[in-house]
Design goal:
About 50% of the residues lie in helices and about 15% in strands. A four-stranded mixed beta sheet has the order 1-3-2-4. The radius of gyration is 15 Å and the shape is globular. It is built from eight helices and four strands. By secondary structure, the protein is an alpha+beta fold. It has a domain of about 100 residues: Orthogonal Bundle (Arc Repressor Mutant, subunit A). The mean pLDDT is about 95. The structure holds zinc ion. Zinc ion binds next to helix 3, strand 4 and helix 5. This is IrrE N-terminal-like domain-containing protein. Pfam families: Peptidase_M78 (PF06114). InterPro entries: IrrE_HExxH, Rad_response_metalloprotease.
Length: about 150
């Protein structure tokens, strides 16, 4: 399991849920810009002014949050260069190792294992719809995360 997301959360997360990926990106020195005219879901670029994450704010809130976390992954994981991400890049069917790594980072950032465990085992919340709404992620993303953590089959 990658530790970058956990380290970032330990350093910069204000312990509020849902976790705000924009705050974390800003804390890490990346600028985050909403652009309703963006032709993609999200993009990451290393510009002369520094790292820049752009996201399409006409998409659903949970998609926007995942997009920002995914683009932040490209930055934090040192993928360099420029990324143009569309729903295919977020899909589980994507086999590009860099996209898989960015998706994993995003999942770990928005759905930390410790938070999931707290919600499920301490607060007794077992409903996927409720868990995903508390963490503001899609139900599919939550389902996949719970599977990865071995909590559902
Ligand atoms: Zn990507």
């Amino acid at each position: 399991m990658s530790t970058q997301a956990r380290e970032i959360l330990e350093k910069y997360w204000d312990k509020e849920i849902p976790i705000d990926p924009i705050k974390l990106a800003n804390a890490l020195g990346a600028e985050v810009k909403a652009d309703p005219d963006l032709a993609t879901s999200g993009e990451f670029n290393c510009t002369n002014d520094g790292p820049l994450i752009q996201y399409n704010n006409t998409e659903s809130k949970v998609r926007q949050r995942f997009t920002i976390a995914h683009e932040l992954g490209h930055f934090v994981l040192g993928h360099g260069g420029a990324y143009r991400d569309n729903p295919e890049e977020f899909s589980l069917a994507n086999h590009d190792p860099l996209e898989i790594a960015a998706n994993r980072f995003a999942a770990e950032l928005l759905m930390p294992e410790a938070v999931i465990n707290l919600l499920i085992f301490k607060k007794g919340i077992k409903d996927i719809a409720k868990l995903s709404s508390m963490l503001q992620v899609s139900q599919i993303a939550m389902q996949f995360r719970l599977k990865n953590l071995g909590l559902i089959s």
